[in-house]
Amino acid sequence: MTCAQFHLPFYASRTLPNIFAMIGTNMAFGCWLAKQGGAAVGWFAFVCVVFRSDIVLLAGPAILLMLLTKAVSLRSVLVAGVLSTLASVGKLFQIQC
Questions:
Q1: Which of 3, 24, 55, 76 has the fewest Cβ atoms within 10 Å of its own Cβ atom?
Q2: Phi, psi of 80 (to 5 degrees)
């Protein structure tokens, strides 16, 4: 459905943070569907830190649903989120220096 719309090919030809964030969020949802909750949380954290902080509004309900359906534990969400955030921030500082 998304690929059939005009906006995806149009915006994919431009280097905008939205397109890079879409790749990461699609990876996160793919990991979620493959029952890899920790990887999904990691992708969400990476995209939130590196590309767009408003992805929190998308990731929050998705992670909450994963917690409510017991697809992930609170401990694994915290570990994956913190590790991905620290790695993303570290990579950002390495790129800027």
A1: 3
A2: -65, -40
Give burial (CB, 10 Å; 0-12/13-18/19+) of 58.
Answer: middle
Cβ atoms of residues 24 and 47 within 8 Å: yes
The model's pLDDT over 46-95, given as tens digits with 9 standing for 90+, comes to: 999 888 888 899 999 999 999 999 989 999 899 988 888 888 887 666 65
pTM: 0.79
The 3-state secondary structure of the chain, one letter per residue: CCCCCCHHHHHHCCCCHHHHHHHHHHHHHHHHHCCCHHHHHHHHHHHHHHCCHHHHHHHHHHHHHHHHCCCCCHHHHHHHHHHHHHHHHHHHHHHHC
